[in-house]
Amino acid sequence: MTSTSTTTPGTAPGTAVAAACAGFGRDVEDNLAQIGRLVADARARGVGLLALPEACLGGYLSVLGAGRDGSHDEQPEDLPPVMDLDGPELRRVAEIAREMTVVVGLCESDGTDRYNTAAVVTGDGVLGAHRKVHQPLGESLFYSAGSDFACVDTPMGRLGTLICYDKAFPEAARALAVDGAEVIACISAWPASRTASAASLAEDRWTQRFNLFDAARALENQVVWLAANQQGTFGKLRFVAHAKVVGPGGDVLASTGTEAGLAVAELDVPAALETARRAMFHLRDRRPETYAAVTAAPMAGAVRA
Length: 305
What we know:
Number of domains: 1
Protein name: Putative amidohydrolase
Radius of gyration: 18 Å
GO molecular function, one term: hydrolase activity, acting on carbon-nitrogen (but not peptide) bonds, in linear amides
Structural class: alpha/beta
Largest sheet: 13 strands, mixed
Number of strands: 15
Helix content: 10-25%
Organism: Nocardioides marinus
Number of helices: 6
CATH topology: Nitrilase/N-carbamoyl-D-aminoacid amidohydrolase
Domain CN hydrolase: 13-269
CATH superfamily: Carbon-nitrogen hydrolase
Shape: globular
InterPro entries: Aliph_Amidase/BUP, C-N_Hydrolase, C-N_Hydrolase_sf
């Protein structure tokens, strides 16, 4: 399903979009070199917007899991290196990106707290950043949570970003769609199940959830959806891979499956959105006045695990 269109690099961004699937660890120089190779490959294939995985600049947590009482029963051997949005690492990414828009994951600090962050970078620097809001399985012991969802304007259109578990919450993607997102890039370090793992990674239940969320979020918001993910293993985690590009109709346009690489799709984003929204436009047909209980009231009738 992966598109392989090729163009000659120039000063204008390409028209294709892509999501990367690759493994990244603690070695920042090695990560930057790998980012350089992925961007060069994407550039040669006419890509103007590339989403790289969560934590691609310094690696993710080596373990992730919590007991039923919420306690974290395992500690990571080390934590990702802290970086600043105006620091040398993202300046290097900007030099690599040039005319391309690249979404990268890092551990950011505001001087007090750590955040799991997605930065939107071009040759002009950092255009914007999203701090992961929803934190699974004890991640809150190591990162503070972000507090908002907002889009940025890029050479490839209006872009919203999410990180991994954020996509399990329809409100997160919808907030970006209401803010005018044409493309949403969700970058992940999404692991396979550790409690009921499947012999085939493609059949793992967490792989299935990863893929379902991608299709649902694209379709319900009628946006182009980029899902980048880590591949391989890190510590005790095995990642499900399956980077993909999903069209605004929920159809998968390109996927890496379980392999490392790029999922590339050539498409005219505004035209694709216009076609998808021509008859049934979900954002137009919303009835926000009927949804107040979704965000205004505490959860009722359910038990927290």
